[in-house]
Every structure is written in C-alpha cells, then in structure tokens.
Write a structure and sequence with these properties.
Anti-sigma_ChrR; Transcriptional regulator; 10 strands; 7-stranded antiparallel sheet; RmlC-like_jellyroll; alpha+beta; 3-stranded antiparallel sheet; ChrR-like_cupin_dom; elongated
C-alpha cells in the first residue's frame, strides 16, 4: 500500500495527549492500522512523553497520602460488596455493512455499530457509525461509485477522512487506499472518484460541511454532514 498523505505532527501529538474528540480519534486510529510509518512515529512520541515525565521533579506528598489512598480502596470495595447487580449481558454489535473484496473493517470501530448502506444520490451511499458512550461523535462511511463525485463544499469546522478503498481526486491531490485528509474552512473542493473502482472512506466531522448548492445542502443536513 503506497500511502502518501498522513496526519500532521500536531494531530499525532493531540492523539498521544488524549485531547482529541472521539470521532476524530477513531479516524486517526484507523490510519494507524494501515500505516507502519505513522505507527513508528506515534510509538516514538509516546516514548518521548515517558522520558519527559521521568525527568519531571518529584512532587511532595502529604504524610498521610498512603493511608488516605488505602481508605478509598476500602470504601470502593465496601460499595461493591453492598451492591450485587446481576451481570450485564455482553453487548452485541451488529455486523458492519458489507464491503468489497480488499476492504477491511477497521479494528478501531470494533465496538461501533453502523447502519446498512443508505442511498443519498445516484451511485452514492452512506452509513452512519454510532460510537458507544459518544453520541455526539459525527462519524460515517461514504461509498461512491467510479466517476461519481460529491457536490462542491467547504467546511464549518474540521473534517478528517481516511480512505479505506478506491481513489478520489479533489483538485488538490489524489487520495488512495490508506491516505488521510484534513479539510477545514480554508478548503473548498469537490472529491471525484477515479474510474475503475468505487471509493469507500471513513469520515468524522466536527461542525458541518457547507455545500454550494441548495439541494446538496438539504441532503447534507438530512444525513448530518
């Protein structure tokens, strides 16, 4: 897999620091699954963070810090003993929507549910991804046929896109399997799927896409883009 487009250093730093919104984090983690070079970079950042932490001056603790910690542990164990709820049934995650041969469902989405493919236009379908514990996460899959394209749009916020299958060109660059893209209010583009194969992308949006045309805006609002 020839991956040419990767997240920037500041995005990896935000991931390592744990400061990314859930939807954006899932897209970055999906890129990591596909890109050995970025996995090495993130491992180096995490190791660097550990070195920095070790070099910090020790913080003084209260004389009774250990006793207070042990008291809290005892209190938690007593609470658990007093409450005896029946064990919860394992959560069943619906099967993901079918993908073409060669496309793999990201491990980052293993606990997520996704709807069936839904029609949004000729040769275009989408699937809503539901993230456990993060109903605010705006994550979805787009599946667009060869030669088809999304309407021209810009962004009122940030959109992260990870290509899972196929290729598209948006006037700035060609994006293929494994490639990553960040678009914001400074980007005005029209992704066009290249001939020969459909294209499937995972996307997360903070804010909204702003389509040029009125009909496209209506469809975008209907599906939460």
């Amino acid at each position: 897999m020839d991956i040419r487009h990767h997240p920037a250093d500041e995005q990896w730093l935000s991931l390592v620091a744990g400061s990314l919104p859930t939807g954006l984090r899932l897209v970055l983690e999906t890129h990591l699954e596909l890109c050995p070079a970025c996995r090495e970079q993130v491992a180096a950042l995490r190791a660097l963070g550990g070195v920095v932490l070790e070099e910090q001056a020790p913080a003084p603790m209260r004389d009774d810090a250990l006793a207070r910690a042990l008291d809290r542990v005892d209190a938690l164990e007593n609470d658990r003993s007093a409450a005896t709820p029946s064990p919860a049934a394992p959560r069943k995650v619906p099967a993901p929507p079918p993908l073409p041969d060669g496309a793999v469902w990201p491990r980052a989405l293993a606990d997520c549910a996704a709807t069936r493919w839904r029609w949004i236009g000729p040769g275009m379908r989408w699937s809503r991804v539901s993230v456990p514990g993060a109903p605010e996460a705006n994550v979805f899959l787009l599946r667009i046929g060869a030669g088809k394209y999304l309407p021209q749009h810009t962004h009122r916020g940030t959109e992260l896109t990870q290509v899972l299958y196929g290729r598209f060109h948006d006037g700035r660059a060609l994006f293929g399997p494994g490639d990553f893209d960040l678009a914001d209010g400074e980007v005005h583009h029209q992704p066009v799927v290249q001939d020969g194969s459909e294209c499937i992308c995972l996307a997360a949006v903070e804010g909204r896409l702003h389509f040029d045309g009125l009909i496209a805006r209506w469809f975008g609002a209907a599906v939460g883009m």
